[in-house]
Write a structure and sequence with these properties.
Elements lengths: L19 H4 L4 H6 L3 E6 L6 E2 L3 E2 L3 E5 L2 E4 L8 E5 L6 E5 L4 E2 L8 E9 L6 E8 L21 E6 L6 E8 L2 E11 L6 E7 L4 E6 L2 E7 L10 E10 L6 E13 L1
Antiparallel strand pairs: 1-18, 2-3, 4-7, 5-6, 6-18, 7-17, 8-17, 9-14, 9-18, 10-11, 10-17, 11-12, 12-13, 14-15, 15-16
Length: about 260
Protein backbone atom coordinates (compact mmCIF):
# COMPACT_ATOMS: atom_id res chain seq x y z
CA UNK A 1 0.00 0.00 0.00
CA UNK A 2 1.37 3.40 -0.93
CA UNK A 3 1.70 6.24 1.55
CA UNK A 4 -0.35 9.42 1.25
CA UNK A 5 1.07 11.60 -1.49
CA UNK A 6 3.46 8.93 -2.80
CA UNK A 7 4.07 9.03 -6.56
CA UNK A 8 2.88 5.58 -7.63
CA UNK A 9 2.45 4.38 -11.21
CA UNK A 10 -1.29 5.03 -10.95
CA UNK A 11 -0.74 8.58 -9.68
CA UNK A 12 -0.58 11.33 -12.34
CA UNK A 13 2.18 13.06 -10.36
CA UNK A 14 2.73 16.73 -9.66
CA UNK A 15 1.72 19.20 -12.35
CA UNK A 16 5.30 20.09 -13.30
CA UNK A 17 6.76 16.56 -13.04
CA UNK A 18 6.94 13.69 -15.55
CA UNK A 19 3.95 11.36 -15.22
CA UNK A 20 4.48 8.16 -13.19
CA UNK A 21 1.74 6.39 -15.14
CA UNK A 22 3.88 6.81 -18.25
CA UNK A 23 7.39 6.40 -16.80
CA UNK A 24 6.82 3.93 -13.97
CA UNK A 25 7.88 0.95 -16.07
CA UNK A 26 10.68 2.60 -18.03
CA UNK A 27 14.13 1.11 -17.17
CA UNK A 28 15.70 4.56 -17.32
CA UNK A 29 19.09 3.79 -15.77
CA UNK A 30 19.61 0.54 -17.63
CA UNK A 31 18.94 1.97 -21.08
CA UNK A 32 22.05 4.16 -21.04
CA UNK A 33 24.32 2.32 -18.61
CA UNK A 34 23.89 -1.12 -20.23
CA UNK A 35 23.58 0.11 -23.80
CA UNK A 36 20.13 -1.40 -24.24
CA UNK A 37 18.54 1.80 -25.45
CA UNK A 38 18.38 5.56 -25.10
CA UNK A 39 16.98 7.77 -22.32
CA UNK A 40 17.06 11.57 -21.99
CA UNK A 41 15.41 14.08 -19.68
CA UNK A 42 16.14 17.51 -21.14
CA UNK A 43 15.61 20.73 -19.19
CA UNK A 44 17.99 22.88 -21.29
CA UNK A 45 19.84 24.05 -18.18
CA UNK A 46 22.99 22.39 -19.51
CA UNK A 47 22.63 23.75 -23.05
CA UNK A 48 24.26 26.77 -24.60
CA UNK A 49 21.34 28.79 -25.97
CA UNK A 50 22.29 31.60 -28.33
CA UNK A 51 19.26 33.86 -28.45
CA UNK A 52 17.51 33.88 -31.86
CA UNK A 53 20.18 31.58 -33.33
CA UNK A 54 20.86 28.09 -31.93
CA UNK A 55 20.54 25.60 -29.09
CA UNK A 56 23.45 23.28 -28.36
CA UNK A 57 22.72 19.65 -29.23
CA UNK A 58 19.49 20.39 -31.12
CA UNK A 59 18.71 21.08 -34.76
CA UNK A 60 16.81 24.35 -35.06
CA UNK A 61 15.04 25.65 -38.12
CA UNK A 62 12.18 27.76 -39.39
CA UNK A 63 11.23 31.01 -41.12
CA UNK A 64 11.91 34.16 -39.08
CA UNK A 65 12.35 31.81 -36.13
CA UNK A 66 13.68 32.81 -32.71
CA UNK A 67 14.87 30.68 -29.79
CA UNK A 68 15.64 31.69 -26.24
CA UNK A 69 15.84 30.44 -22.68
CA UNK A 70 12.72 30.72 -20.52
CA UNK A 71 13.59 32.97 -17.62
CA UNK A 72 10.22 33.51 -15.95
CA UNK A 73 9.85 29.99 -14.52
CA UNK A 74 11.88 28.44 -11.72
CA UNK A 75 13.09 25.46 -13.71
CA UNK A 76 13.57 27.22 -17.05
CA UNK A 77 13.21 25.65 -20.47
CA UNK A 78 13.23 26.64 -24.13
CA UNK A 79 11.09 29.24 -25.91
CA UNK A 80 10.23 28.91 -29.60
CA UNK A 81 9.04 32.23 -30.99
CA UNK A 82 7.36 33.19 -34.26
CA UNK A 83 6.68 36.80 -35.29
CA UNK A 84 3.26 38.05 -36.32
CA UNK A 85 3.70 37.10 -39.99
CA UNK A 86 1.78 34.62 -42.11
CA UNK A 87 3.53 31.19 -42.23
CA UNK A 88 6.44 32.07 -39.92
CA UNK A 89 7.51 28.91 -38.08
CA UNK A 90 10.01 27.57 -35.56
CA UNK A 91 11.21 23.98 -34.95
CA UNK A 92 13.52 22.07 -32.62
CA UNK A 93 14.48 18.43 -33.15
CA UNK A 94 16.92 15.61 -32.35
CA UNK A 95 17.20 12.30 -34.17
CA UNK A 96 18.46 8.73 -33.95
CA UNK A 97 16.48 7.74 -30.85
CA UNK A 98 14.42 4.65 -31.70
CA UNK A 99 12.21 2.70 -34.06
CA UNK A 100 8.76 1.17 -34.00
CA UNK A 101 9.10 -2.59 -34.53
CA UNK A 102 5.81 -4.42 -34.21
CA UNK A 103 5.73 -7.51 -31.98
CA UNK A 104 9.41 -7.10 -31.02
CA UNK A 105 9.10 -6.00 -27.35
CA UNK A 106 11.16 -2.82 -27.88
CA UNK A 107 9.21 0.03 -26.29
CA UNK A 108 9.15 3.82 -26.83
CA UNK A 109 8.30 6.60 -24.36
CA UNK A 110 7.75 10.33 -24.88
CA UNK A 111 6.49 13.23 -22.78
CA UNK A 112 6.90 17.01 -22.78
CA UNK A 113 5.54 19.95 -20.81
CA UNK A 114 4.52 22.87 -23.01
CA UNK A 115 2.68 26.18 -22.91
CA UNK A 116 1.25 28.22 -25.79
CA UNK A 117 1.77 31.63 -24.23
CA UNK A 118 -0.81 33.62 -26.17
CA UNK A 119 -3.38 30.85 -26.28
CA UNK A 120 -5.83 29.85 -29.01
CA UNK A 121 -5.16 31.63 -32.27
CA UNK A 122 -4.46 30.93 -35.91
CA UNK A 123 -1.41 28.76 -35.19
CA UNK A 124 -0.45 25.10 -35.58
CA UNK A 125 1.67 23.00 -33.19
CA UNK A 126 3.46 19.62 -33.46
CA UNK A 127 4.93 17.60 -30.59
CA UNK A 128 6.21 14.03 -30.67
CA UNK A 129 8.53 11.71 -32.62
CA UNK A 130 9.19 12.44 -36.28
CA UNK A 131 11.58 11.42 -39.00
CA UNK A 132 14.56 13.61 -39.73
CA UNK A 133 13.00 15.79 -42.43
CA UNK A 134 10.54 17.19 -39.89
CA UNK A 135 13.09 19.81 -38.87
CA UNK A 136 13.04 21.37 -42.34
CA UNK A 137 11.10 24.51 -43.14
CA UNK A 138 7.40 23.79 -43.57
CA UNK A 139 7.34 20.75 -41.29
CA UNK A 140 3.86 22.14 -40.83
CA UNK A 141 2.32 22.89 -44.19
CA UNK A 142 1.31 26.34 -45.41
CA UNK A 143 -1.24 28.15 -43.24
CA UNK A 144 -1.05 25.42 -40.61
CA UNK A 145 -3.66 23.21 -42.27
CA UNK A 146 -1.67 19.94 -42.02
CA UNK A 147 1.73 18.56 -41.11
CA UNK A 148 4.08 17.53 -43.88
CA UNK A 149 3.86 14.10 -45.51
CA UNK A 150 6.44 12.40 -43.29
CA UNK A 151 6.38 9.71 -40.61
CA UNK A 152 5.22 10.97 -37.21
CA UNK A 153 3.87 9.78 -33.84
CA UNK A 154 2.45 12.17 -31.29
CA UNK A 155 0.28 15.24 -31.00
CA UNK A 156 -0.61 18.08 -33.33
CA UNK A 157 -2.98 21.03 -33.49
CA UNK A 158 -4.01 22.63 -36.78
CA UNK A 159 -5.29 26.12 -37.46
CA UNK A 160 -8.66 24.67 -38.44
CA UNK A 161 -9.00 23.20 -34.92
CA UNK A 162 -8.15 26.43 -33.09
CA UNK A 163 -5.29 24.75 -31.19
CA UNK A 164 -7.14 21.56 -30.25
CA UNK A 165 -4.43 18.91 -29.83
CA UNK A 166 -5.12 15.60 -31.62
CA UNK A 167 -3.30 12.30 -31.01
CA UNK A 168 -2.10 10.90 -34.34
CA UNK A 169 0.23 8.66 -36.28
CA UNK A 170 1.32 9.40 -39.82
CA UNK A 171 2.98 7.28 -42.53
CA UNK A 172 4.02 9.55 -45.37
CA UNK A 173 0.75 11.17 -46.51
CA UNK A 174 -1.53 8.77 -44.61
CA UNK A 175 -2.61 10.24 -41.27
CA UNK A 176 -4.60 8.35 -38.63
CA UNK A 177 -6.29 10.34 -35.85
CA UNK A 178 -6.53 8.24 -32.68
CA UNK A 179 -8.03 11.02 -30.52
CA UNK A 180 -9.76 14.07 -31.94
CA UNK A 181 -9.75 17.31 -29.91
CA UNK A 182 -7.91 15.69 -27.02
CA UNK A 183 -6.99 18.95 -25.33
CA UNK A 184 -7.45 22.64 -26.06
CA UNK A 185 -4.36 24.81 -25.50
CA UNK A 186 -5.57 27.60 -23.23
CA UNK A 187 -3.43 30.73 -23.02
CA UNK A 188 -0.56 30.73 -20.51
CA UNK A 189 -1.40 27.24 -19.24
CA UNK A 190 1.04 24.36 -18.87
CA UNK A 191 0.18 20.92 -20.28
CA UNK A 192 1.95 17.56 -20.38
CA UNK A 193 1.53 15.50 -23.56
CA UNK A 194 3.00 12.03 -23.95
CA UNK A 195 2.71 8.62 -25.54
CA UNK A 196 3.91 5.04 -25.01
CA UNK A 197 4.45 2.30 -27.60
CA UNK A 198 4.27 -1.12 -25.91
CA UNK A 199 6.66 -2.93 -28.26
CA UNK A 200 3.82 -4.95 -29.74
CA UNK A 201 0.95 -3.13 -31.46
CA UNK A 202 -0.47 -0.59 -29.01
CA UNK A 203 0.17 3.14 -28.54
CA UNK A 204 -1.20 4.91 -25.48
CA UNK A 205 -1.56 8.70 -25.40
CA UNK A 206 -1.47 10.75 -22.20
CA UNK A 207 -2.53 14.28 -21.21
CA UNK A 208 -1.44 15.67 -17.84
CA UNK A 209 -0.60 12.24 -16.49
CA UNK A 210 -3.87 10.57 -17.45
CA UNK A 211 -4.56 8.04 -20.19
CA UNK A 212 -6.41 9.85 -22.98
CA UNK A 213 -6.50 7.22 -25.76
CA UNK A 214 -5.28 3.74 -26.64
CA UNK A 215 -4.77 2.73 -30.28
CA UNK A 216 -3.98 -0.54 -32.02
CA UNK A 217 -1.52 0.11 -34.84
CA UNK A 218 -0.35 -1.78 -37.92
CA UNK A 219 2.34 -1.16 -40.50
CA UNK A 220 -0.16 0.93 -42.47
CA UNK A 221 -0.87 3.33 -39.58
CA UNK A 222 2.63 3.64 -38.08
CA UNK A 223 5.97 3.59 -39.90
CA UNK A 224 8.06 0.58 -38.86
CA UNK A 225 11.34 1.32 -40.62
CA UNK A 226 11.79 4.95 -39.60
CA UNK A 227 14.38 6.06 -37.03
CA UNK A 228 12.48 8.57 -34.93
CA UNK A 229 13.52 11.47 -32.76
CA UNK A 230 11.77 14.21 -30.77
CA UNK A 231 10.41 17.21 -32.63
CA UNK A 232 8.49 20.27 -31.47
CA UNK A 233 7.27 23.11 -33.66
CA UNK A 234 4.89 26.03 -34.13
CA UNK A 235 3.63 27.81 -37.26
CA UNK A 236 1.61 30.96 -37.82
CA UNK A 237 -1.44 30.35 -39.99
CA UNK A 238 -1.97 34.03 -40.72
CA UNK A 239 -0.84 37.40 -39.46
CA UNK A 240 -1.69 37.13 -35.76
CA UNK A 241 -0.05 38.41 -32.55
CA UNK A 242 3.49 37.17 -31.93
CA UNK A 243 3.45 33.63 -30.51
CA UNK A 244 5.68 31.83 -28.03
CA UNK A 245 5.67 28.06 -27.52
CA UNK A 246 7.37 27.22 -24.22
CA UNK A 247 9.03 23.83 -23.72
CA UNK A 248 9.65 23.43 -19.98
CA UNK A 249 11.16 19.94 -20.32
CA UNK A 250 11.10 16.98 -22.66
CA UNK A 251 11.74 13.33 -21.79
CA UNK A 252 12.05 10.43 -24.22
CA UNK A 253 13.34 6.86 -24.22
CA UNK A 254 13.64 3.83 -26.49
CA UNK A 255 14.62 0.19 -26.15
CA UNK A 256 16.82 -1.22 -28.89
Amino acid sequence: MSKAGEMTIANPGADRDPSPILWGKCPQDELNSKGTGFYVHETFHNRIIVADTSVEGWQMNGTNNDFDAITDTLDGGLSLEVPANDNDDSYAARFGVGQVVLQNQNRLWFEARIQLVNGPADVAVILGFGEEDFVADDAIQANGTAIMDKDFIGWRALTSDQTQMDAITKVDATETVHLNDGQNLVAATWYKFGFFFDGKNKIEYFVDGALAARATVTSTTVAVSTIYGPVIGIKQGASTPIQFLYLNWIRYAAEW
